[in-house]
C-alpha cells in the first residue's frame, strides 16, 4: 500500500540532510570518538530530518512513493539512532570497568513489539507522534505494522524479556543469550473450531532492531568420537574429534534501560552451514544435494521448540540447546573478556544464569573449554565452573525436567557425556562419604538414571554444577526443596533459595495502560515506574469516591479499546457492559482451562434449564487466550471444545447480553497489552502445587483486575499482599491434593454426588455444543470422568461458590472498584526490578 499523503515535509525532492550531524558520533581511530558519543537532538525538527534521511537513503524511496512498511522501517531505524549512542557508550564502560556481568542463558525471549518500548525508553513518544503528523503519516499504522517476534512460548520467554529490561534499567551489566529462530512460536488459527499451526514468519518484512555480525561467527561441533593423548607435560588428556559442525552467527538486539542512557545487549544466534554450497554437485545437476548441508545446518535455528515426539525432533532440540550455549560461552570468553584475562578469575567477571534446564549442557561445555582447550586440571576447572553457574527451576512437573537419552547425548556430544559421567562419579563419591552405605540415596541422586533407559537428568546436573538453585515463588521454592529435589536440598541446604518472579512495569503498566499510568502519576508522581513499591501511596485513594470514579472510567475506556481491537483483528463483537472474565495462558491440563469451561457451561445450563433467570445473572464476557503445543492432543481437544461452546452460547438468544465467550486466535504480547488492562477478573485456577509462579497473575493485579484463584504459585503471595477481602480464594491446598491422591482420587464420585456438575457434564457429553456429535466432545469428557489428573471435578463446587462471591461483589460497583485499586496499590512487590535485586543479593553477588 503506497502512502500518498503529503505533509509539511513531503516532497519528491530528496531530503539532503547532513548524515553526520543527525546520527550518533561514531568512534573513528580509537575506541571513543574525540568527544562523548552523542545522539540526535530531541526536537521534532531533528527527528523529521533523521526520519526522512532513513527513508531516502536507508530505504531508497521518496516519502510520496513509500509504503507503510518503508515508513515503519525508517521510523524504527530513526528511533534506533537515539539508542545507538547509549549502546556504544555502555559497551565501552562495561569493558573498561571490569564489572561482573550477568550472562542470561535462555532458550526463549518473548520480547513483544520493540518500537513502542524504544520510544518509551528514549522519551520520544510525543516527538515521534508530532514528527509523523508533520510528514502526513499516522504513527498508529506504523506501530501496527511491526511483527512481534514470537521467540518464546509463554511465561518463561516473557520473564526473560522482563528480566533483561530490569537489568538495563538498573544499569547492571547483562548479556542475554539465546537463539534467533527463523520461525518463532507458531501463529495460531482456527479451522472448524480446531487449532491449526501456521509458521510465524516474523522476519518476512525485515527486522530493523537487529545487527548481524557474521565476522564474530562461532564454529560449533557435533558427533564424532573422543580419544586420549599425552600432552607436553606428560598428562593424559582427552580430545574431541567431531564429525560435523555448523557456524553460529550473532545478531545483536539493543535492550534499553528506562531513560537512563544504559543499553545492554541481547545476542541471538543463527545457525549456518560451514560449507553451504557445493558448486561441483550443483554443476552436475543435483541442485537439492548442492545445498543439503545448508538446509541441515539451518534447521538448528529454524523453529522454536520443534515437535519432539519423534527421534529426529528430540535430536534437533538437543542440537539447539548445545548450539546456543556453545556459541555464548565462546563469545564471552574469546570476544568479551580481555585477551590476557586469567580464567582462574572467571567467576569474578561472569555468572551464567540457567533459565530452566534448556541451557544446562553449558556446564560440561565450560568444563570442556577449561580442561581440554585451556589446559586446566580437572579439580581447578570444576571449582571455577560451579561458581560460574546458577540454576532457576521453573516447574514442579516431572515431565518438564529434561532427561536426555545417554545414547543420543553420546552420539551427538561424546566428550560432554564423558565429562558428565566423571562429574557424576566424583559427586557420588562425596555423597557416599557423607551417607555411607545408603545406596538408595546414591541411586536417587545420580545424574544418570538407569531405567527405563540410561539417561541424563539435566535438573540434577544443573543442581550439582551450580552455585545456587532457586524456585520462582515462595510455595514453589518450598516444594522444589521438599518434593522435586529433596535429597539435594538436604545435602546442600544453603544452595537453595527463592526469588519470586516479577514483571516489568514499563511495558505492562506504563506502556500498556497509559490511562491508568497517567491517573497514578497525577496522584503520586512518576517515581513508581522504576520503584513500584511507591504504588502503596495509592491506598488512601481507594476510599476517595472521585478517584474510584476516575479509576472505573479508565477500566471502561480500556474495555472499549479492547473491543475495537478484537473487532478489527478477529471480527469478534462483545457487549460493552459486562464483567470481563479473562483466562489467558498456555493451554495445559494443570492450568485447568477445563475447569473454567465447566463453570461457563454450568452457568449456561442453569439459565436454559430454568434453574436461574437470565435477568438475575451478572452479565459476563469470558475471554480465553491460549496455544496448545502441536503434539499435545488433549490440550488441542480442549481448545476445540471451548470454541464449540463459544459458538453455541454466542448464537443462543436465551443468553444474549448475559453470557458471551471469545477465544481470539494467536494470543501474544501485543494482544496481552490490550487485554490485561481491560480485564475485571483474572482466572488463576491451576491445581495447587502445580504452577511454579505465574506472571500473568501479577500483570492482571497491577492493572486493577481481581483474582479468583487457588493457593498456588505466586497466587499465595498476591493474596497475602492484597488481602483476603480483595482476592477470591477457592480449592484444595497442596497437602489436601496430595492426601486425596494418596487415598485414591475417584472423579466419578464427584459427578454422581453433585447435581450441577452432573448436569454440566451431561450437556457437554450429549453433543449440545457439537451439533449432536457426542464423539466430538468424548475425549475431554472421558478424560475428566475417568482420570481427571488435575482434579477439576474435586474443585468444581468450591470454584462455583467462589464465582458466586465474585458476582456479589461485582454488583456493588464501589466495593469492586475499591478492591481493584487496592490490588494495584499493594502489588508493587511484583516488579521484575525487585526480582533482579533479589538475584543480585541472593545468587549473583554482583
TrEMBL record:
Protein name per UniProt: Alpha-1,4 glucan phosphorylase
Entry EC number(s): 2.4.1.1
Any single Gene Ontology cellular-component annotation: cytoplasm
Purpose: Phosphorylase is an important allosteric enzyme in carbohydrate metabolism. Enzymes from different sources differ in their regulatory mechanisms and in their natural substrates. However, all known phosphorylases share catalytic and structural properties. Allosteric enzyme that catalyzes the rate-limiting step in glycogen catabolism, the phosphorolytic cleavage of glycogen to produce glucose-1-phosphate, and plays a central role in maintaining cellular and organismal glucose homeostasis.
GO BP of this protein: glycogen catabolic process
Organism: Calidifontibacter indicus
SUPFAM superfamilies: UDP-Glycosyltransferase/glycogen phosphorylase
EC supergroup of this enzyme: transferase
Cofactor: pyridoxal 5'-phosphate
Modified residues (N6-(pyridoxal phosphate)lysine): 699
Catalytic activity: [(1->4)-alpha-D-glucosyl](n) + phosphate = [(1->4)-alpha-D-glucosyl](n-1) + alpha-D-glucose 1-phosphate
Domain of life: Bacteria
NCBIfam families: P_ylase
InterPro entries in UniProt: Glycg_phsphrylas, Glyco_trans_35, Pyridoxal_P_attach_site
Amino acid at each position: 500500500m503506497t502512502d500518498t499523503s503529503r505533509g509539511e515535509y513531503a516532497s519528491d525532492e530528496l531530503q539532503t540532510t547532513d548524515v553526520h550531524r543527525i546520527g550518533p558520533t561514531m568512534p573513528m581511530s580509537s575506541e571513543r570518538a574525540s568527544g562523548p558519543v552523542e545522539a540526535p537532538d530531541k526536537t521534532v525538527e531533528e527527528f523529521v530530518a533523521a526520519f526522512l534521511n532513513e527513508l531516502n537513503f536507508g530505504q531508497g524511496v521518496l516519502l510520496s512513493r513509500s509504503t507503510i512498511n518503508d515508513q515503519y522501517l525508517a521510523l524504527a531505524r530513526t528511533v534506533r539512532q537515539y539508542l545507538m549512542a547509549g549502546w556504544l557508550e555502555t559497551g565501552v564502560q562495561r569493558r573498561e570497568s571490569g564489572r561482573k556481568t550477568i550472562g542470561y542463558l535462555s532458550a526463549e525471549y518473548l520480547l513483544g513489539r520493540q518500537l513502542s518500548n524504544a520510544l518509551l525508553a528514549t522519551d520520544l513518544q510525543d516527538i515521534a507522534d508530532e514528527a509523523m503528523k508533520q510528514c502526513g503519516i499516522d504513527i498508529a499504522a506504523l506501530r501496527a505494522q511491526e511483527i512481534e517476534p514470537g521467540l518464546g512460548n509463554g511465561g518463561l520467554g516473557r520473564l526473560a524479556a522482563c528480566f533483561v529490561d530490569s537489568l538495563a534499567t538498573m544499569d547492571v551489566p547483562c548479556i542475554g543469550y539465546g537463539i534467533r529462530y527463523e520461525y518463532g512460536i507458531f501463529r495460531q488459527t482456527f479451522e472448524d473450531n480446531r487449532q491449526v499451526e501456521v509458521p510465524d514468519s516474523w522476519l518476512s518484512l525485515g527486522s530493523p532492531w537487529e545487527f548481524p555480525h557474521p565476522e564474530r561467527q562461532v564454529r560449533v561441533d557435533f558427533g564424532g568420537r573422543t580419544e586420549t593423548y599425552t600432552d607436553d607435560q606428560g598428562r593424559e588428556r582427552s580430545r574431541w574429534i567431531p564429525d560435523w559442525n555448523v557456524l553460529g552467527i550473532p545478531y545483536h538486539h539493543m535492550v534499553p534501560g528506562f531513560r537512563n542512557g544504559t543499553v545492554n545487549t541481547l545476542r541471538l544466534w543463527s545457525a549456518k552451514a560451514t560449507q553451504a554450497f557445493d558448486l561441483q554437485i550443483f554443476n552436475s545437476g543435483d541442485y537439492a544435494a548442492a545445498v543439503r548441508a545448508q538446509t541441515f545446518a539451518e534447521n538448528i535455528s529454524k523453529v522454536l521448540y520443534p515437535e519432539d515426539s519423534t527421534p529426529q525432533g528430540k535430536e534437533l532440540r538437543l542440537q539447539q540447546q548445545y548450539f546456543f550455549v556453545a556459541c555464548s560461552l565462546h563469545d564471552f570468553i574469546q570476544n568479551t573478556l580481555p585477551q590476557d584475562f586469567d580464567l582462574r578469575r572467571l567467576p569474578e567477571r561472569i555468572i551464567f544464569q540457567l533459565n530452566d534446564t534448556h541451557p544446562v549442557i553449558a556446564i560440561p561445555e565450560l568444563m570442556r573449554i577449561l580442561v581440554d582447550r585451556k589446559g586446566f586440571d580437572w579439580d581447578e576447572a570444576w571449582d571455577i565452573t560451579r561458581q560460574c553457574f546458577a540454576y532457576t527451576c521453573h516447574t514442579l512437573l516431572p515431565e518438564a525436567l529434561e532427561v536426555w537419552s545417554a545414547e543420543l547425548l553420546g552420539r551427538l556430544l561424546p566428550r560432554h557425556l564423558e565429562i558428565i559421567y566423571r562429574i557424576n562419579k566424583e559427586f557420588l563419591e562425596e555423597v557416599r562419604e557423607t551417607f555411607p552405605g545408603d545406596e538408595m540415596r546414591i541411586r536417587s541422586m545420580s545424574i544418570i538414571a538407569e531405567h527405563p533407559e540410561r539417561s541424563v537428568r539435566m535438573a540434577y546436573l544443573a543442581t550439582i554444577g551450580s552455585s545456587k538453585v532457586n524456585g520462582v515463588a515462595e510455595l514453589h521454592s518450598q516444594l522444589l526443596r521438599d518434593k522435586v529435589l529433596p535429597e539435594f536440598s538436604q545435602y546442600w541446604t544453603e544452595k537453595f533459595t527463592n526469588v519470586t518472579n516479577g514483571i516489568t512495569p514499563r511495558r505492562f503498566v506504563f506502556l500498556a495502560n497509559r490511562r491508568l499510568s497517567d491517573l497514578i502519576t497525577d496522584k503520586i508522581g512518576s517515581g513508581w515506574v522504576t520503584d513500584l513499591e511507591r504504588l502503596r501511596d495509592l491506598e488512601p485513594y481507594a476510599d476517595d469516591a472521585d478517584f474510584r470514579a476516575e479509576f472505573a472510567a479508565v477500566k471502561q475506556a480500556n474495555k472499549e479499546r479492547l473491543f475495537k481491537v478484537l473487532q478489527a483483528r478477529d471480527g469478534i463483537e462483545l457487549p460493552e457492559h459486562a464483567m470481563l472474565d479473562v483466562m489467558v495462558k498456555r493451554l495445559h491440563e494443570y492450568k485447568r482451562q477445563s475447569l473454567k469451561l465447566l463453570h461457563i457451561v454450568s452457568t449456561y445450563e442453569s439459565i436454559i434449564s430454568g434453574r436461574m433467570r437470565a435477568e438475575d445473572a451478572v452479565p459476563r464476557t469470558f475471554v480465553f487466550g491460549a496455544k496448545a503445543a502441536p503434539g499435545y492432543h488433549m490440550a488441542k481437544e480442549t481448545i476445540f471444545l471451548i470454541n464449540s461452546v463459544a459458538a453455541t452460547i454466542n448464537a443462543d438468544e436465551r443468553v444474549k447480553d448475559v453470557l458471551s465467550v471469545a477465544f481470539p486466535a494467536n494470543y501474544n504480547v501485543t494482544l496481552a497489552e490490550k487485554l490485561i488492562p481491560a480485564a475485571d477478573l483474572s482466572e488463576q485456577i491451576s491445581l495447587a502445587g502445580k504452577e511454579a509462579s505465574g506472571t500473568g497473575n501479577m500483570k492482571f493485579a497491577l492493572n486493577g483486575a481481581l483474582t479468583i484463584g487457588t493457593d498456588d504459585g505466586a497466587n499465595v503471595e498476591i493474596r497475602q499482599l492484597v488481602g483476603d477481602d480483595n482476592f477470591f480464594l477457592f480449592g484444595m491446598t497442596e497437602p489436601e491434593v496430595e492426601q486425596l491422591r494418596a487415598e485414591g482420587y475417584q472423579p466419578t464420585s464427584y459427578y454422581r454426588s453433585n447435581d450441577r456438575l452432573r448436569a454440566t457434564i451431561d450437556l457437554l457429553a450429549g453433543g449440545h455444543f457439537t451439533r449432536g456429535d457426542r464423539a466430538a466432545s468424548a475425549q475431554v469428557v472421558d478424560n475428566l470422568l475417568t482420570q481427571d489428573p488435575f482434579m477439576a471435578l474435586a474443585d468444581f463446587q468450591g470454584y462455583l461458590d467462589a464465582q458466586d462471591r465474585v458476582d456479589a461483589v461485582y454488583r456493588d460497583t464501589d466495593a469492586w472498584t475499591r478492591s481493584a485499586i487496592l490490588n494495584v496499590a499493594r502489588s508493587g512487590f511484583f516488579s521484575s526490578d525487585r526480582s533482579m535485586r533479589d538475584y543480585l543479593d541472593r545468587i549473583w553477588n554482583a
